[in-house]
Amino acid sequence: MTALRPHPAAVLVRSGSLLDAAAGVEAAHDLLLEGGRVAAVGAAGSLDARAAEVAAEVIDAAGLTVSPGLIDIHVHLREPGQTAKETIATGTAAAAAGGFTTVCAMPNTVPVNDTPEWTRWLQAPERGAQVRVLPIAAATVGSMGEELTAYAALKAAGAVAVSDDGKPIGVAGGGDRIMQDALRAAALAGLPVIQHAEDTRLTVGCSMNAGALAFRLGLRGMTVEAESSLVERDINLVRRLRDSEKIDAHLHVAHLSTLQALDAVRAARRDGLHVTCEVMPHHFALNEEAVLGYNTLAKMNPPLRAESDRQAMIEGILDGTVDCLATDHAPHSAHEKEQEFERAPNGITGLETALGLALGILHRKHGMPLARVLALLTSAPARVLSLEGRGTLAAGAYADLVIFDPRCEWTFRAAASRSRSRNTPFDGWPMLGLVKYTLSEGRVVYRQNQSR
Q: Up-side HSE of residue 388: CA atoms within 13 Å toward CB?
């Protein structure tokens, strides 16, 4: 794995409240970081002598929470090809400000990331990444749904999953056959298939959630069935491979947004199938009413849903059906969003607001323990994508961590974002949990600006 930069001198993180779900730790601890890894974990005050021996920089984390660095398995960094919206350097700077130390980049770049060469290019030091970028490669050549890419070679180049993202596998092109072939080939290569669950034959010309509000606004709406029917189809293909070929394929449903699709995932789990899913903060923070006034900053795909679906996403998170949180960070230039609702592109930025929304809504409002919220952003996504050495701060793991004040309230200002784009519906929103430091493989990549 290519290094971001030479590893720094040792760092001692002293007396922070360590919350590490993977290691089962919830107590005040010291961490000694050396060579980009966690060298030692000990009770508060126990590592001072060892830190002095290696002349470690000291970060006083007393009164703060220390967590494994956050992991986002669904981002769009727009490079190559769309650098007016975002670059790997600016997107990962936003990630660091939000407490993320690993981001998994979707392949819908220009050109599409469908080769080992492009997969390696995304990870090269010349891209200026502030945190670790792990590519998700295209499942089919050019994401056209006709011919599978070379999964084993892509994995060897650093890809952690395959997906055609906004072009759902097996809707156009090769149909059910290509999706079943993708699931089979990915299983043999040891990769999950990440599916954007949308039957695009049912959503032509649609720009928001189907229902009474869409009717009132004069907009075509995406039905719940457009999402749930594809989830159900893909689950049946996973089942068919298990029953007929004894292949344990891993289907991961991206940005799940409806109760009907969530129930399909629940049923698949009960049947012993390897099906996982993610939910985005905007789908548990907002409902379809956010688009009133034709607000393009609240236009996304899947669209913001009815209040009953928003509540279902929260329930699915609380009861453990939802495996992890992700952001679908999708930057767009201002002029792209400043046009008619139906013409404006889908997507919002999300790397700098995910932790604040999760803590404010899931932890404070719904009583989810802090450790469980952090697990959804650390150990859980690491487990979904089998990211060895990440999502934990056990000795030997990567020295990826975020230090934050879980009680601090602050207001997100889009104008201060480190992203190149500002397309967010959360400008001016109150947030909970202020990031003080982010360290990626032992390097301090973010320190809180007191004027934030």
A: 3
61: tokens are 């984390």
Report how far residue 25's alpha carbon sits from residue 234's, in angstroms, rounded to the nearest whole number.
Answer: 37
Nearest one of 261, 258, 260, 305 to 285, comparing CA atoms: 305
Q: How far apart are CA 262 and CA 324, in angstroms?
A: 13
Residue 44: per-residue pLDDT = 92
Confidence category of residue 5, pLDDT binned at 50, 70, 90 = low
Instruction: Give me the helices (H) in 299-424, please.
Output: 307-318, 334-337, 354-357, 370-377, 379-384
Average predicted confidence (pLDDT) for the chain: 96
pLDDT computed for residue 173 by the predictor: 83
- Tell me whether residue 328 is one of the annotated catalytic residues: yes
pLDDT score recorded for residue 1? 45
Kindly name the residue from 181, 328, 400, 427 that is annotated as catalytic: 328
Give the separation between CA 345 and CA 207, rounded to whole angstroms: 9
Instruction: Give CA torsion, residues 379, 280, 228, 180, to 10 deg.
Output: -50
For 371-392, the DSSP string reads HHHHHHHTHHHHHHTT-TT-S-
User: Using CA atoms, how far apart are residues 120 and 6, in angstroms rounded to an integer?
Assistant: 19
Share of the chain above pLDDT 70, in %: 98
Angle, helices 259-270 vs 224-245, to 10°: value is 10
Which tokens go with 74?
Answer: 């669904």
Can you list the alpha helix ranges (DSSP code H) found in 164-219?
175-189, 212-217
The CA-based angle 60-7-11, given to 5 degrees, is: 15
Partners of residue 388 on adjacent β-strands:
none
Q: Among residues 182, 147, 145, which one has the least CA distance to residue 166?
A: 145
Residue 231 φ then ψ, to 5°: -60, -45
User: 267 and 212 in contact (C-beta within 8 Å)?
Assistant: no
Give the β-pairing of 401-411 and 430-440: antiparallel
Separation of alpha carbons 414 and 418, rounded Å: 9
Phi then psi dihedrals of residue 243, to 5 deg? -75, -35
Does residue 313 sit in helix, strand or coil?
Answer: helix
E strand map for 44-147: 57-60, 65-68, 70-75, 100-105, 132-135
Give the SS3 label for residue 288.
helix
